[in-house]
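dude i think i finally got it to work??
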Amino acid sequence: MGKSKNDIWVGLFVLVGLVAVLFLSLQSANLLSLNWQKTYHVSANFDNIGGLKRQAAVKSAGVVVGRVESITFDDKTFQAKVDLALDERFAFPKDSSLKILTSGLLGEQYIGIEAGSDAQNLVAGDKIQATQSAVVLENLISQFLYNKASDAPSKP
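look at this
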């Protein structure tokens, strides 16, 4: 009788441990977002989103103020349409701008929002016009190599 009671406790402990590992792995991969704050949704178009993913952070001054809700392709403008869910407690002016930034040299990408100076704030359904696309490392390297090749003296 005592052995089966210990088996139940060990099994319960292992189960709680597995749930904790699953929760941490989903949370670290940004596949699980537990947020009970009320949000409002805005959208923006980008020429190139690089490696931006759904549930990526939206930050202002280094503070997470929202998440990327969805990413779709607009076949009329040939741009990526990014829908953002911003926390209601953070109000940004209508002329705010968005940039796709990278954490560190090769880190994950996120959206940085810079507040504008308009008297009116963003409301649900607004579209942010001022956007700056992601800097793609491969493009920078190829541009650097092209410039170096054109600067090289030509041999007669």
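The two ends are 95 Å apart (CA to CA).
im so relieved honestly
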